[in-house]
Amino acid sequence: MKNYMVRVISNALNVLGLACVTTDLVSEACRLHGTSATASAALGRALTGGALMASLLKDGQRLALKFEADGPLKKIIVEADSSGAVRGFVGVPDVDVPLKEGKLDVAGAVGRNGFLTVIKDIGLKELYNGIVQLRTGAIAEDIAFYFTESEQIPSAVGLGVFVEPMGDISAAGGFLIQTLPPSDESVVDKLVTRLEGMPPVTQNLRSGKTPEDMLEIIFEGIPYHILEKRELFLKCTCSRERIERVLISLGKKDIADMIAAQGEAEVDCEFCRTRYHFNRAELEQLLQEMGEVSENGDR
Ligand SMILES: [Zn+2]
């Protein structure tokens, strides 16, 4: 279990803590998308944040995060589910943003004027939809603000991705701490002090600390126990059938135009870059199926 999340709760049941290591899955995603250093840090933080948030879901539930703002990265999309699977992409993978005080400027790449949208599929007819304005564009603060503002759960989030000078990811991970009612002021004070004094997530990971170690540091003086340990991994859910549905959603005219212009179609999955090819016969088959669908609908 190389990439995993640990979830703990205080014995008084009023503080929930999650911490994870995601170095391998972030590396894999960044290789797949050919991201620049700043885009790698942004995508890695969002993937890690999404994986932590999905760890709070029940079996079979999933969620999507969308960061969209006025920065040159344009957007970050992440999807994650309760099984530990996560996938994502950014709008402009080769974004080039100057360093800020010697550090990768994720907030500068994302932009500050924009929104974080969280969509949850918790198995009901309607999707749950929460939207907040971005606080900093640095991802962790925005997710914490989302929880506090939209779900009314006071939360602290730390996310980190260490990008080596040659672009390799040598550490990625994060934590999510939530206080639950009845809130205990002295416990909250302890947590705030602890979190403020804590070295960055990547520094912890690079010095050999595990997610369990990070939680031990954060929960010092607060008795707690481990609830669960869960593997996290990069996985796309695309398939030829899903891509066919995307083509069908374009409408008959667009497909007919494709047949006339190129005689074929190529569709790339935005999440994993898999290329799906449709030849003339396959496109004509789709067109025919669509004809049948609308004829049936008319009856
Ligand atoms: Zn895919």
User: Compounds present?
Assistant: zinc ion
Average of the residue pLDDT scores: 93
* Secondary-structure-derived class: alpha+beta
What is the rounded Rg? 21 Å
Helix content range = 25-40%
Strand content bin: 25-35%
Order of helix and strand elements from N to C terminus: EEHHEEEHEEHEEHHHEEHHEEH
Largest sheet: 6 strands, mixed
Would you identify the regions where 5 or more consecutive residues have pLDDT less than 50? none
Strand order across the largest sheet: 7-6-3-4-5-11
Choose one word for the global shape: globular
Question: What is the terminal-to-terminal distance?
Answer: 55 Å
Number of helices: 10
**Beta strand count:** 13
Structural notes for this entry:
This protein has helices at 23-33, 37-54, 106-110, 140-150, 185-197, 201-206, 211-218, 240-250, 252-261, 280-298; strands at residues 4-10, 15-21, 62-69, 75-81, 85-90, 114-121, 128-133, 155-163, 169-179, 224-231, 233-234, 265-268, 275-278. By secondary structure, the chain is an alpha+beta fold. The strands form 3 sheets. Strands 7-6-3-4-5-11 form a 6-stranded mixed beta sheet, covered by helices on one side. Helix 1 (23-33) crosses helix 2 (37-54) and helix 9 packs antiparallel against helix 10. The chain binds zinc ion.
List keywords for this structure.
299 residues, 6-stranded mixed β-sheet, globular, binds zinc ion
Summed up:
The chain is built from ten helices and 13 strands.
